[in-house]
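Researcher: I'd like a candidate sequence for this fold, 377 residues long. If you have to choose between options at a position, lean toward the conservative one.
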């Protein structure tokens, strides 16, 4: 990710988080005051809960700041996992919020005492509900725009605030109508909903921290895109992992073993370009070019190196060996293909058939599965 994109991502996150923090501070103060003087324990508790949300706001700001930094020597893949860890932290806040609301609801149902609530408490609860819901939609819009799982989790944290305000509102209306247990039942239902969201957010981020890959449907799309690139014969060892809403992948592609190194590299570049074009969420792709499927067995590791082959050929008393240049060695499964190049003038000393037969016989006597190809220039 470019520095400009990271900076813009941090700017958007900071802006919407500061907006929520300021609103939280304002709402917490008026809810505490209205709840205290208006004899509403629920509204006062909701005000205290809003103050705790400021801790979550600070966590988002800090995580956004550090995760927007570019890769360095100690963190070659960047710092975006900080955002993932922060998402787990926010999921934890959602767990406590959900449990708190459920406990509050149970206590309200079981309590035999209910104080008379002042009318202005109702309007304070309505204001809190409207403001928190508005912040939720604003935060969710920015989160989807910059593809931030952390902000998505934080948006749902905002909705838990709106849910708490709804509980207070139902409780106030119920108290005014004489049905005191309505707010308790609503608290339990919404608390369970918040716990469910906390589980989903926390589980997704935990999967990222444990390098979970994309689902099978998305993986099949990536495979099809790779196989559609001209020159790719097959692929294997395609691995993906998630990081802060982005995908990091590596893959081995198989090309014609007789291609040049540069052409194989060219095909690898084309694979990278195709994936970058078709999958915007792919942050980084490593393409390894293979001449064969070496996923299960590596036959070529037992074959001789160029240095070993040249050293052996010197002892074979090959004709015109001093004029021969070993242009390329192709490694295929359990054998090698040697491309030997001679100057055209060598044909004045010997025939092409004699030269090829002599080299083939002597080299195959040394390496039975070897093949020899002779070229002239």
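Model: Candidate sequence:
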């Amino acid at each position: 990710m470019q520095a400009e994109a990271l900076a813009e991502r941090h700017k958007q996150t900071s802006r919407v988080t500061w907006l929520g923090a300021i609103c939280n501070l304002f709402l917490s103060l008026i809810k505490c005051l209205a709840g205290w003087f208006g004899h509403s324990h629920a509204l006062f508790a909701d005000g205290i809960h809003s103050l705790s949300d400021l801790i979550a706001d600070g966590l988002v700001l800090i995580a956004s700041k550090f995760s927007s930094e570019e890769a360095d020597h100690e963190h070659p893949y960047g710092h975006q996992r900080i955002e993932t860890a922060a998402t787990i932290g926010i999921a934890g806040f959602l767990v406590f919020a959900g449990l708190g609301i459920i406990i509050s609801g149970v206590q309200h149902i079981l309590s035999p005492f209910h104080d008379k609530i002042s009318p202005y408490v109702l309007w304070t609860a309505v204001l809190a509900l409207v403001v928190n819901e508005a912040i939720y939609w604003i935060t969710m819009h920015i989160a989807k725009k910059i593809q931030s799982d952390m902000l998505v989790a934080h948006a749902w944290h905002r909705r838990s605030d709106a849910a708490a305000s709804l509980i207070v509102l139902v409780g106030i209306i119920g108290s005014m109508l004489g049905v005191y247990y309505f707010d308790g039942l609503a608290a339990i239902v919404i608390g369970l909903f918040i716990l469910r969201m906390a589980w989903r957010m926390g589980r997704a981020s935990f999967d990222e921290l444990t390098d979970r890959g994309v689902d099978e449907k998305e993986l099949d799309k990536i495979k099809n895109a790779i196989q559609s690139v001209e020159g790719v014969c097959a692929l294997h060892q395609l691995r993906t992992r998630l990081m802060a809403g982005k995908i990091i992948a590596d893959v081995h592609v198989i090309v014609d073993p007789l291609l040049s190194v540069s052409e194989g590299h060219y095909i690898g570049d084309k694979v990278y370009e195709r994936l970058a074009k078709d999958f915007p969420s792919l942050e980084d792709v490593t393409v390894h070019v293979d001449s064969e499927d070496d996923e299960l067995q590596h036959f070529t590791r037992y074959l001789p190196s160029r240095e070993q082959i040249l050293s052996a050929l010197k002892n074979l008393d090959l004709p015109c060996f001093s004029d021969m240049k070993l242009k390329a060695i192709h490694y295929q499964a359990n054998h090698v293909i040697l491309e030997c190049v001679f100057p055209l003038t060598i044909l004045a000393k010997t025939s092409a058939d004699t030269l090829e037969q002599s080299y083939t016989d002597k080299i195959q006597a040394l390496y039975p599965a070897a093949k020899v190809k002779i070229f002239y220039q």
